[in-house]
Amino acid sequence: MSEEKTGLIEGADGRTRCFWPGELPDYLAYHDNEWGRPVDSDHRLFEKLCLEGFQSGLSWLTILRKRENFREAFEGFDFERVARFTENDVERLLGNAGIIRHGGKIRSTINNAQRAIEMCEKEGSLARYFWRQEPQPHERPEVLTYAALTANPKTEISTRISKDLKKRGWSFVGPTTVYAFMQAMGLVNDHIEGCSCRAEVEKARKAFKRPG
C-alpha cells in the first residue's frame, strides 16, 4: 500500500514510523521519545494544554521549535507562578519574539493557570482529573489506521472534556485541541498500526500507574 493510504513512512534509519514527522530530526525525536508516552506531571500537562492552545491556526512544529522559549517565558509552566502574572507581564510577553505574540492566547494561559490551581484544589491534581477521562478499550478502535486517525481530529470524549473545562472557566480548550493533548500525553496511543513506536508506547501505557 502507498504511504498516502497507510500513513507510514520508512526513515533513513530503516524504522517505520507515522508519516507526520517526516525526516526532520527534532520532529522525529518528539515522535519517537515523547508523543503518546503517558505523563502524570501537572506542570507538563499544563504546559501541553497551553501550547496546544498556542498552536491553534499554526503547525505543532512551529510550537515545538519555540518550546524552550515558551518554557522560559512562562516560568517552566509552573501554574502557581503564571497565575500571578499581571498586565505588565502580558505586555512583556507581547514583546518576546521567541514565542507566539498573541494577546488572547497569552491571557488565556494566565487565566488557565488560575483555573489549574482551582482544579488541583477540587480534584487533587491535574493528572487525576485528566487520567480519569482516559478512554476505555471499547471506546477505541482495535486497529488504528491512517484513515481513522485523520478522520477523527476530535472524539466524544475530547468534546466532553472540552465542555467541562469551559464550564470551569478554561479557554482555548476546544475538542480538537483537547484531543491533540490526549494523543501527546498518552491518554490514547495514536501511533498508527505498523509504526515502530506503537508497541513501545503501549508497553509504557500498560506499565504506567494511573494517578489517584
Describe the protein in words.
The protein is mainly alpha-helical. Helix 3 packs across helix 12. The protein has helices at residues 3-6, 25-33, 42-55, 60-64, 67-73, 79-82, 87-94, 103-123, 126-131, 146-151, 156-167, 175-185, 198-207, and strands spanning 8-10, 16-18. The relative contact order is 0.17. The longest helix is centred in the middle third of the chain and has 21 residues, at 103-123. Strands 1-2 form a two-stranded antiparallel ribbon.
Mean of residue pLDDT values: 94
Give the topology string: H per helix, E per strand.
Answer: HEEHHHHHHHHHHHH
* Beta-strand residue fraction: under 5%
Task: Classify the helix fraction into a percent range.
Answer: 55-70%
> What separation lies between the terminal Cα atoms?
43 Å
Pfam family, one: Adenine_glyco
GO molecular function: DNA-3-methyladenine glycosylase activity; metal ion binding
Keywords: Metal-binding, Zinc
Organism: Nitratireductor indicus C115
Short description:
With about 210 residues, the chain is mainly α. The protein has helices at about 5, 25-35, 40-55, 60-65, 65-75, 80, 85-95, 105-125, 125-130, 145-150, 155-165, 175-185, 200-205; strands at about 10, 15-20.
Defining key terms:
single chain, 212 residues, mainly alpha, Endonuclease III, domain 1, two-stranded antiparallel sheet, 13 helices, 2 strands, globular, DNA-3-methyladenine glycosylase activity
